[in-house]
Structure formats: C-alpha cells, structure tokens
Amino acid sequence: MTVSDDGTTTRAGEERWIAACAAADVEDDFGTRVEVDGGQAIAVFRVDGAYHATDDRCTHGEASLCEGLVDGNVVECPFHAGTFDIVTGKALTFPCVVNLATYPVRVEDGTIMVRVDAPTTIPTLLDRSEPA
Amino acid sequence: MSRRVIVVGGGPAGVAAAIAARRTAADAEVVLLSAEALKPYEKPPLSKAVLTENLDPSATPIVPDDLLAGIDLRLGVRVAGIDRAGRRVDCGAGGWLTYDALVLATGAGARTLPGLPATLPGVHYLRDAADALRLRDALGQARSVAVVGAGLIGLEVAAAAAVGGAAVTVLEAAATAMARVCAPSLAQRIVERHVRAGVMFRWGAAVRGVKAVADKLALSLGDGETLSADLVVVGIGIQPDTALAEATGLAVARGIVVDATCRSADSAIFAAGDVARFRTLWCDGPVALENWRHALDQGEAAGINAAGGDATYAAVPSFWSDQYEVRLQGVGWADGLETPAVRRALAKDGAIEFHLRDGQVRYAVGIGASREIAIAKRLIERRIAVQAEALADPGVALAGLLRASA
C-alpha cells in the first residue's frame, strides 16, 4: 500500500486488469454493476463521456450504488440518499461520511477494463468544513 | 461570550442539528442533551436487525465519534423544563443551562391503546433500544405472537417474529395493510410474502383489551372473539413528545408548530424531526413527518439556523421499510392525491405506483424499485410534467422523463 502526502492510499498488487463490461452498456443515469471476485462488486459510471469505477456498495448502508441516480459527477445512494463524487470517491453528503474506493479504468476496443488490484481511497476528513 | 446552542434529543434530528450548528458557527458552544444513556444510535435497525440478527443497538451509531468532536454531548440528561424568559433549560440534577438558541428534537413516543397498557408483562411497544432488547428477549421465549397494527413497524416486527419461528397473528383495524403509504394492490404483495412466512392476518379487528390468563395473554376483540398469545406487540403509530414545548406555552398542534426555517413562535426556539409540525411544498396541510431522512434533513436546517445561519427546509419526504428480503420505498407525499395510482410493472417481482396531481408525480411507492424511486424523487423535486401513460409503459425509459422537459 502506498500513502501519498495528503493521506490518499492506493493498495496495488500485481497489475490485474479485468474486462468489466462493454462501454456501450454503461448508461449516463445509472452505474453498471460488475461482480469481480469473492462477492466484491464494482460500479462503472460514465461522467461527461469518461468512464470511472468505484466500489458498488455504499460505505454507509447495505445498498448498491448502481441503483442510485447519477447527476453529473455525483451518485445518490438509493437507500438513504447520501451522495458521493464518482470521480474522486469523496463522500459528499450525510449520512455518507466514509469515502468510496475508486479504481483505474481504461477502454480497450470498446471494453471497459478496470484495475481491480489498485483501489484508491482518499482520506476521510470527518471535520469537513462544509455543512453535511 | 460565545453563542450557546442547546439541542434537546439524541435521535437523528438532534444529532444532525448539533453537527450542523457546530459547522455553521465554529465559535459556538454546542450542547447536545440526550435522555438516553446510549450514545446516539440508529433507530431503524430496532425493528429489523436488532430483532433478527442479534445486532447490538450501540453497534450502529448515528455518526462515527469523530463527527461529534467539539460537541458537548451529555447523556442521561432529561430536560425538566424551559424558562423562555430567562433563555435557560432545567437539566434536573445538572442545574440550569442558558441558551442563545434552543433546538427541540424530542422525537415521539409510541401511541398507546388504553386497553393495552405497556405496564402489563408481555405487552410491548417499540421506540428505543431498551424496548427493542426487551422485545428481542421476549421473542426468544414466545411461541405465539400477536401484533396489533399492520403499519410499517407492526409488519417489520411480524416479519422478525415469523423468521424467528413464532406463530404470528397481525390484527389490523383497517381493511388493508400500510394504508397510509400504499394502495391495497401493493400492500397485498407484501401481505402475501408474510402469509408465505406463516403469518396470519385479521382485518377489521378492533382490540378491546387484554388479560393475563395463566402464562398467556388473552386479547378480547371487537367481534367478541378472544385471541391468545404469549406476547403482544403494539405498533399503531407515534405521538410527538411535545410536553416540554407545551409546558412553556409554545404553539403545539400534534407537534411543535414551526416554519420552513424550523423556527417556532419563539424566535430562539427551533424544532425538528418527529416532534415538529410544519407546512411544506410537498404536502397539502401542515404535517409531522415521521421518518429518518426527514429527521436528518430538518435537524440539519434547524441546527444551521440555530447557529445563526440561513437554511430553509424543503426536502422531499421519503421512507423505506425492510420486511424479509423485500424493500419497500416511498418518496413524496400521498395524502389527498389522485387515485387510482398509475402502476408500472418491473422486472424481478418489482412494482411501483405513482400518484399524480396536475400532471406531476407527487408520490411514488414501490418494492424492488430503488432505481425507479430515485427517478421519481427527481420527477417530484423538479416538478416535471409527465404523462400517466408514459409512467405506466415499461417500454418508456423512466430516466428519459427527467430530460423530456428539462
């Protein structure tokens, strides 16, 4: 695991890219849920034409973020309506306070490839200055 | 001297108010008084995982400890009175505490039936962690359980009891379940799931009283029949805990009356959550909303304003209920809306119904319908004009309706 100056952690093993889904299958309104291994699920999103991957499970409750509506770079959890920044994984609004892991993504011949061995999580700053 | 904000009540509204006050005015002193001994914990699991999975209520705090940093949290403090002229609250043995702004987030207690006193052994009401732990212990011993009320709490408890192996009978005064939140056709889907789990239902059942007979309870019903059970759980709604506000002369009408900024008639006193009654864009008359997300959102607005900020509360109401593997979710407000609802069939046993007014969705409720509810929330918030035919047609992408008139 590497920790950068701002506390962001990246856990990287041997580069392991998996073919997650077809780029054409990813909608603008909802993420696409992809089960990786051991029950772990990744959410693939499209924001302004670019693809991003995060953990699918909300860091707050038992919910799939792929069931939550995407608005710009923000996904709203369908269960308790907390929100995350899809690009950075940052928890934006209450009750979500723990940031979401994001994964490197690249597109190869129309297939979304996700590097599942390298989740990046920015530090959770619980004393964020903006109101919840 | 710095401004002091006192928040009374350790539920989601109180916690959100305290955190928001803290963030709004860094130099304010924020005191959060909770009558309970436990650190603020989530209430939704009390009728679900606490009963079915042995979850400890303290294992699901409302917020991680870090978020309470800088807040003077005092547990086990029951406020005995408010002196509005002196701007101070009576903390009993803790003495008087003065405030610049006061947020009342005292919540609600269970509505009780006079014939079913909570003091009678075997009769349970469910509001707080202590109630839930007592109920869990009792469910562990009970072979037969009578649940009075087929609302959300009653049905969640019925599901927990049935999963635990008890013979469960639900007694409901109305003709259908969950009549406040969904039309009979959707309610029927959930009732059928209960029936598959072995739960029996009696509709139109008035409960007159209860007697202890040997080691069981005998419920006398309106039709002259008697139902015997080891345990009775009553879930017939809640009653806002307005005693403090009433005693100090604040306007109370089934809830402390507040405006869209959560202010009461006394500009130094705010109220939020189950205890507040207010007018909102989304409902016809003044309402007291009784759900979790509302408590958080309104608490946040109250806390911001109590700390000198400027927030208006206008969130769309929403709720959820988990029974077995079924998740019921609703958004908007149902009262007084056009019926019949517009129904849309969904994949995988899901279903959703929309209630409209003047060509706009005002309320939607569904099972297995997370995505559709998320879209409905936006349709409601943005007051998007929709055609009932489009909502009903599974061939029309719902999300597309968000853009149709954008």
Order of helices and strands of chain A: EEEEEEEEEEEEEE
Number of strands of chain A: 14
Low-confidence stretches of chain A: 126-132
Biggest β-sheet strands, sense, barrel of chain B: 5 strands, parallel
Strand arrangement, major sheet of chain B: 3-2-1-7-19
Structural class of chain B: alpha/beta
* Total beta-strand segments of chain B: 25
Task: Give me the side-by-side strand order of the main sheet of chain A.
Answer: 4-5-6-11
User: Please, what is the average pLDDT of chain A?
Assistant: 88
Oligomer: heterodimer
Helix percentage of chain B: 10-25%
What's the tally of helices of chain B?
A: 10
Biggest β-sheet description of chain A: 4 strands, antiparallel
Helix content of chain A: under 10%
The separation of the N and C termini of chain B measures 50 Å
The low-pLDDT segments of chain B are: none
Overall residue-averaged pLDDT value of chain B: 95
Give the CA-based shape of chain A: globular
Total number of helices of chain A:
0
Spell out the key features of this protein:
heterodimer, A: 132 residues, mainly beta, four-stranded antiparallel sheet, 39% strand, globular, disordered C terminus, B: 406 residues, alpha/beta, five-stranded parallel sheet, 10 helices, 28% strand
Question: Summarize this, please?
Answer:
The complex is a heterodimer of chains A (132) and B (406). Chain A is mainly beta and 132 residues long. In chain A, 0% of the residues lie in helices and 39% in strands.
Describe the secondary structure blueprint for this structure.
The complex is a heterodimer of chains A (132) and B (406).
Chain A: E1 2-3, E2 9-10, E3 17-22, E4 32-35, E5 41-47, E6 50-55, E7 70-71, E8 74-76, E9 83-85, E10 91-93, E11 102-103, E12 105-108, E13 111-115, E14 120-121
Antiparallel strand pairs in A: 1-2, 2-14, 3-13, 4-5, 5-6, 6-11, 7-8, 8-9, 9-10, 12-13
Chain B: E1 4-8, H1 12-24, E2 29-34, H2 49-52, E3 71-75, E4 81-83, E5 88-90, E6 96-98, E7 101-104, E8 108-110, E9 123-125, H3 129-141, E10 144-148, H4 152-163, E11 167-172, H5 184-196, E12 200-203, E13 207-213, E14 216-221, E15 226-229, E16 231-234, E17 238-240, H6 243-247, E18 256-257, E19 269-271, E20 276-277, H7 292-306, E21 318-323, E22 326-332, E23 342-345, E24 351-357, E25 360-367, H8 370-381, H9 388-392, H10 398-404
Parallel strand pairs in B: 1-2, 1-7, 2-3, 7-19, 9-16, 10-11, 10-16, 11-12, 18-20
Antiparallel strand pairs in B: 4-5, 5-6, 8-17, 13-14, 14-15, 21-22, 22-25, 23-24, 24-25
Helix pairs in contact in B: 1-7, 8-10
